[in-house]
Every structure is written in structure tokens, then in C-alpha cells.
Amino acid sequence: MLTGKTAIITGANRGIGLATVEAFAKQGAVVWACVRTQSEEFEQKMKEISSEYATTITPVYFDVTKESEAKEAVKMIGGYSKGIDILVNNAGISVERLFSMTSIETIGNTMEVNFLSQVRLAQLVSRLMVRNRTGSIINIASVSGIESEQGSIAYGSSKAAVIFSTKTMAVELGKYGIRVNSVSPGFIDTDMWKNRDNDVSDRIMTRTPLGRKGTAQEVANVILFLASDMASYMTGQNLVVDGGRLGWGY
Ligand code: NDP
């Protein structure tokens, strides 16, 4: 599905990002796997995946919130590649705190990581995509950006901004052959849920028709679909991957 394509994936060391690296490699993509901390374990994992699927995966190190690092990384990738076909803006943090208890600084920081960093990278990478008049950008949002829930002033707002900005980018970049879509996962079994309250997860499960958490691979499959030519007539969409969740049940 992705033979001959080059992809940039952020947050590639774990969870949905790692599953996406694997899904893309399996389909023949050349992957630039972006993480903020260098580690032997990560490099080893990338070597294993690339040799299993006979493709190239190159680790790239930068913090998505650092403008100069992001610019440098995209410049470097652009210098080595004939073009970038796919950007998966996946890196993100979760913040769960009541509105009245959340500092403006926390909201700002969450917006910076989850929203502004995605916009910055999309700007940098779309400039390269424009040259080849083709590209697919997938921004990872969340169901929290669609439906309000208690404690989601920072996280939910940042993800709502992702969904909205995706549509704006799609409108502006369509004429260059660049598609921009978002994916909104529901309750996915990754480290992000490690410290969540059991009551919250029980409540979500009772309102999830499929009756279980999703896996990182199940989200990666949808990202893969949007990245591929199978979705060639889709742009400005937000695909929800949440097991059919019926809201929060307030
Ligand atoms: P994880 O917590 O497992 O992974 C988050 C990734 O983002 C890590 O690779 C982390 O790197 C990276 N990251 C965070 N901050 C930065 C930064 N400043 N610079 C570079 N990388 C950074 O989460 P998931 O895999 O579950 O989440 C992936 C995406 O999916 C996120 O955008 C999240 O909001 C979204 N999502 C997840 C849901 C879920 O239920 N799991 C539900 C809805 C949306 P490091 O290891 O260095 O911290």
C-alpha cells in the first residue's frame, strides 16, 4: 500500500506512533521515525522492524515543541529525500484536570504540544509536499476534542483545535494535491491510560458497544488507510476510532 512512499511519524517510540511505524513499514514505506529522546532500545527496535519488512527506518531526534529543532529535522529529512509523501502528527500528552484547577500555563503547554506543534510541522512539511503536488497529512486528535468531558479543558480544547485546523489545512492545501485528515481515537490501550482512574474506564466500557479498549494497531490501521491512495478522495475528515462509544453518559 505504501511502496515508494516516504513518511514522517512523530511520537514513534511507543503506543500509537510505534504501531504506525510498524504498519507503514509492513506496507513498504520508508519511515523517518521521530522521537525526542535518543535510546539504544529505540534504535534496536527500529532496526528490527526495518529488517523484518525490508525497508528503511531512520530515527530522528527532536522535541516537537522546539521550533528550531523541528526546522532542522525537516530540513535534514528534506535533504535526504526526493519528497515527503506522508506526515503523521502523533506526538501528544494527556492532561486531566478540572477547569477551575487548571492553570493557564498548563493549558498553554498542552496547546503547544498537542496543537501548535502539529501546525508547525504541517507547515514545514507541506512546503516540501507542495513541490511534488502530492501528500497526505494525518493529525491525531481525540474523541475528547468532539465531546466535552469533566477535566478536559486543556486536553479537549487542544484536540478540538486539531480537528478544526485539519479542516482549514485541507481547504488551503487541496489545490496542491495535499490531503489533510484527522483521526480521533477513543479509549486505546497505551501508556497514556496508565494513570487513569478505573472508574472512568469502567464508565467508558459500559458505553462502548464493542465492549473493550482499542489497540494501538487498530488506530494505526486507520492512519494507514488515510495515508494511502485508498483514501485518495478524502480530505478534511475526522475519522473516529472508538468502538462506537456513546458519549460519556452524563
Ligand atoms: P503515549 O503516551 O503512549 O505516547 C505519546 C508519544 O508522544 C510518546 O512517543 C511521547 O514521547 C511523544 N511526545 C510527547 N510529547 C512530546 C514532545 N514534546 N516532543 C516529541 N514527542 C513527544 O500515547 P498514545 O500513543 O496513546 O498517543 C498518541 C496520540 O494519540 C496522542 O496525540 C494522543 O493524544 C492521541 N490519543 C490517544 C488516546 C488513547 O486512549 N491512548 C485517545 C485519543 C487520542 P516520550 O516517550 O518521549 O514521552
Tell me about this structure.
This protein is of the alpha/beta class and 250 residues long. The protein contains seven helices and seven strands. A seven-stranded parallel β-sheet has the order 3-2-1-4-5-6-7, sandwiched between helices. Helix 1 packs across helix 7, helix 3 (67-80) packs parallel to helix 4 (104-132) and helix 4 packs parallel to helix 5 (153-173). It is globular, with a radius of gyration of 17 Å. It binds NADPH dihydro-nicotinamide-adenine-dinucleotide phosphate. NADPH dihydro-nicotinamide-adenine-dinucleotide phosphate is lined by residues 10-11, 13-17, 35-37, 63-65, 90-94, 113, 140, 142, 185, 187-188, 190-193.
Structure described in brief:
The protein has 250 residues and is an alpha/beta fold. It has seven helices and seven strands, in the order βαβαβαβαβαβααβ. The protein binds NADPH dihydro-nicotinamide-adenine-dinucleotide phosphate.
Keywords:
single chain; 250 residues; alpha/beta; 7 helices; 7 strands; globular; binds NADPH dihydro-nicotinamide-adenine-dinucleotide phosphate
Helix-strand layout with pairing:
Elements: E1 6-10, H1 15-26, E2 30-35, H2 40-52, E3 57-61, H3 67-80, E4 86-89, H4 104-132, E5 135-140, H5 153-173, E6 178-185, H6 198-206, H7 216-227, E7 238-241
Parallel strand pairs: 1-2, 1-4, 2-3, 4-5, 5-6, 6-7
The structure holds NADPH dihydro-nicotinamide-adenine-dinucleotide phosphate.
Radius of gyration: 17 Å
Which word captures the global form?
A: globular
In round numbers, the mean pLDDT is 96
From the helix content, strand content and strand pairing, which structural class follows?
A: alpha/beta
